[in-house]
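hey so i finally got around to running the thing on that chain from the lab meeting. sorry it took forever, my laptop kept dying and i had to restart like 3 times. anyway pasting the input first so we r on the same page abt which one it is
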Amino acid sequence: MRDLINERLILLGTITNGLNDLTESDLDKLEQGLLKQFILDEYVPQKQIKEFSNVSEMKEADLNLNDIVMTSGYYVSGDGGESTYIIKDYNYYLNEWLPIDCRKVGYKYNKLGTDLMLIDTPVDEYGNHTLNNGLVACLLNKEDIKAEQYGSKGDGEFDNSEAFIHLFAHMKKGKITFKKNAIYLMPQRNKDNISDVYTTVINPYAPYMCGRSSGCQRPIMANIDGVELIGENSTLKIKDNDWNTAGTADFALLNLFRVIRNLKIHGLIFDNNGLTMDYTNSVENHGIAWKQGNSMIDSGKAPIIDDGTVHEISNVEIYDCEFKNGGTTRAVNDCGGDGILIINPMENCHDINIHNNKFINWGRWCFAIDLGGNGERLQNIKFNYNYCIQDETNKNLEGKYRGLGWIDFEAKKCFTNLKIIGNYVSGLTPFAFNGDGKISNNVIIKDNVLIRASRSYMGAYPYMWNFYGVQIKDCIFENNDFSMASGSNRLGYSYNNVIIRNNKFCNSNDAMSISRPIGNINIDGNELSDKGKIINISYFTLPDYFSEEDKNNIELNLTFKNNKGGISGKLINKDYLNNEYLNLTIENNVMELMDITYFGNEWIFDPSQVIASVPAFSARGAIFTGLTSYNYRYYPNGGGSYKVGDVIAQNSSKKTVCTKEGYLILEGSFKYCESDISFSSNKPISQYSIVYTGDNVYLALNAGKLGSIKPTHQVGSELNGEVNLFYLKKVANIANVVI
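ok and heres what got predicted. didnt touch it at all, straight out
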């Protein structure tokens, strides 16, 4: 029969290719309708199909093996549960109709209490039904199911938990459709609704389908390939204050286990109803969660899919959904409640696309890839165009606001082709990312608007972009507006080929930290309202993943231009003291702060980029292309390098002229830049301080106390007391000329 269906589907595809005037939806409906008719025609002529108003009538009828039965409703005609069944015996139901991983269920714990013991799966009595004569009515087309065909009701009152347990377990390929605007209530499992065969509230399919330690009572999908969940403003809702008081190992309203391939979810509202959950409920109340599971069970091994894969989540698309009110109101830092949670995915997990959804009043994070990990690489992960809001009602029992942050990638993973694009966030904005020291490459973070609401939070993290353990490579960070957010910012502990462009930063105290830069680092067109520090460059060394060959071919092109805000950093690598590998460009900026030290390849600096009222700035080592300003002592700012005759600064009464070529000693100012240090016997200094005598300028390669004798060397480094002093330049002399 399957060959016949395939043959007819090919013919149908040929027909539909010519129906250019029909929409995709029209074609889909036509295809499904014809497919159903093909199936029915193969089994029995239309005149022999037996028809009933509902399931109860069908169960009472005297039907025979292989009869085809159609009902016009589940409880009553027209309630949306109309179905077509084929009448078979129990052996067919168990060994052919049921998916292989649903053919056994756990019914009671073993004597040790470690595992559920297994029996052959009884007829579910929700989608499939035992007739009064002992035969079984099996759904004929199990790949196109409406929730109502399993006895569900979307009236906001009916208990759908049992129906959904069977519905989601059975669906391995095909689609489940939920009624438009329906609200499907999901309380905890009620023993009154559970067959006497079972002595526990654990989802009976869990042990055989998912393995040991999968003791959920909520619905589970596992080992699927090609499933679509279709809603139209359809709500799956946890009952008020009834998430999990039984102590079961539930993670989510919908739990995904083991192998999840080609899953599409759209049009559904996942309402965890967490703002009604008190201390009696466990906190792990997430919208959707995936977990590995395992293949170990009490009596051996659970079945695995044909290709032997045990764990995978890939090719998942979730869109036009809403995730709201996760977690509980327990007054603890972590009160639970992610919109979507993926727990420790393996390296074969890829292509997860979460887009155009709403996340409302999450209790922890909107989206989390969390727990475990050893640097496995995930590819093609997208979180785009989502609307994320925490409002004034999002409080715990003590009146504190809930949540930890926005996105959490703390599972020690690295990424290739990670995209975070076009999201709007109002509430908590932190994004945590533990990269386990591995390279994450081809990362795009753009067009996001982040607003951190100023509230009294219970456990919110203070940072914003906190990518720790991340070696970022080939990254575009652009057009993000976090001017109304707050918290420290870093995109990794090394940067290789990174563009930071056209972003609106929040404040000078939360400048973007750039560490171990290499390749092309382009910082262009960013904006900070007070024109203060946008970028701070620290740890000016090479990425620790560089090989010896890499170290012999290093190049850094660092460009900072067109920004309304400043930059700071000592661009000094003690392993490359001549800094031949750095090409530095700082141009066309408007800066309230400028504090750069770089003695290496010749670089130029126009001091007019610094706002005139700034008391001091540092462009140590630069050749100035214009006049600098005076500090309050009427000494020229900047620390530039000059030649004899260069006019350094000028006002209405005087000008300052270079009379001896060299470096002009820098006088700093608190919060703006440090002063150079005049040599003094036994003076303690810090690493990378600039030390000068009457003739020469030196770089302190380490912290310690200076010696008692003034240094005089003019090449390389020499030990002076405890400090290695590296020669930089001669000291310039200046003279003031009255105008």
